[in-house]
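From the pipeline queue, job 12 of 40. The input is one protein chain; the requested action is below.

Action: predict structure.
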Amino acid sequence: MSVIGIVCEFNPFHNGHKHLIDSVKQQGDVVVCVMSGNFVQRGEPAIFPKDIRVKAALMNGADIVLELPFVYATASAETFAYNAVKILDSFGCDKIAFGTENANINNLNKIVDVLTDEKFDIELKKCLETGESYPSARQSAFNKFIDNCDISLPNNILAVEYLKAIRKLNSKIQPISVNRIGADYNDDFAVDDFASATHIRSLIFENKSFDKFVPNNIIDLYHNAISTGKILSKDKYNVSSLALLRSKIYEKSENIANMSEGLENRINDAVCNSVSLEEIYDFAKTKRYTHSRIRRAVLCYQFAITNDDLDINVPYCRLLGYNKNCKEIVGNLVGNCKLPFVVRYSDVLKYDNDIINRIYEIENKTTDFFSLVLNNPDVCSKEKTFSPIKE
């Protein structure tokens, strides 16, 4: 039996995710998903609350779902991947599976060799000094070592970061790369029955049919969530975020995560002179900073996430859901977990640890906000009353 880890957002779960799980899971294997909570790496909220997304995963091959806390789920690819792999390693996974544009592990390891070489850092610094954005400078520097290899493709970026994390943790986890099929990560169109999560979200928000792009057994789950208002309201999120950001414009922001080299001043000016989040992002964007970097910086500003928070390595494993047929296996994995294990809020109180308290406190705060910006708003303290989903 293998315990196979998958890092995911399932925003929402679709046929491509099902393909990944089915491609790697053999009879008797256990699939452990580390899933972002109510906010994702794009620097925005998920389309559905995490209980809906956990249930969809458990109905389609996932056996255990653990949480990647907000601080790491909304961070850079490097921080996102490192802390996700740390959770999987601590939980006893012996493999990690991921979709990528380049399924050759040897080629991916060659990329890692270059990116972890001191000579690459020197070239990267030179490219940044010319005023290139970080992704562009990174690709330019990389081209000095290996030609005709695009390291900017979204899944390749994460695949490389997973491999880097495995090395950094000195983990025995073995990587499994699966070729992504159908539309690419950010494509807003479909290929046969496969569409990116980006495209599916667009269809849902535009009240168009998306059923063919998700497994049949979760179509009703999604439609019920939509009809009962358990879905993000982009308008409410926009207005609520602006209100929160405007309340902070006179506060010092030097230690806010993802702020550097005057970016905090640009974002402050953007907040003062904008009437939508998209205007803020466009106003603050420069050649040096990508749209995604701006989005993450604004999100950190919004929730007062500091550099000190990002410096904390993930301090616990938290159970979001499990397949009832795996109850005994879950018990064994929990018993051998290298990190403190959290099932309910009472476990956080039991550990009485400042670092655990801080990361969980951020989860509480951001979920309270998320609960308010659903089509059918929910009350506060959903994190403290959350119980793992059983399927």
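Job complete. The chain has three domains: 3-102+156-233+310-390, 108-152, 249-303.
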